[in-house]
Amino acid sequence: MVGFLIALLSGALMSVQGIFNTQVTKASGIWAASAFVQFSALLVCLGAWAFLERSPLLQVFEVQPKYMLLGGAIGALITYTVIRSMDLLGPARAVMLIVVAQLLVAYVIELLGWFGVEKQPLEWRKAIGMLAAIAGIVIFKWK
Known about the structure:
Layout: H1 2-27, H2 30-53, H3 71-89, H4 91-112, H5 124-141
């Protein structure tokens, strides 16, 4: 239940953050806004680490395979793409497409067992659920 609530909070925070970041972009520019977002995230993470965790900071470099360290760079691209999509499509359409893309890619990763994730068998109910989500986008966008 806690995981469910955290996931709901994450989705809500992502939507609010996207709107905030889009507004910051209008005052500065997309890359300046993205840099500020990432820098402020760094400060929050370092503060949380200092007060809550205190594990060896450089231990992250022990991760294998090393390409797993690209999460921060991917985060910068996520910030950019969320800002642009919200600016071009509006928050509701952008978030709907983002969530369906996340779901689709996550399911493919599970099916193929990529990036160290345990491979899962194809389940038709999940595939049908994905089609229902895509149909929801079509219905939402339909004029």
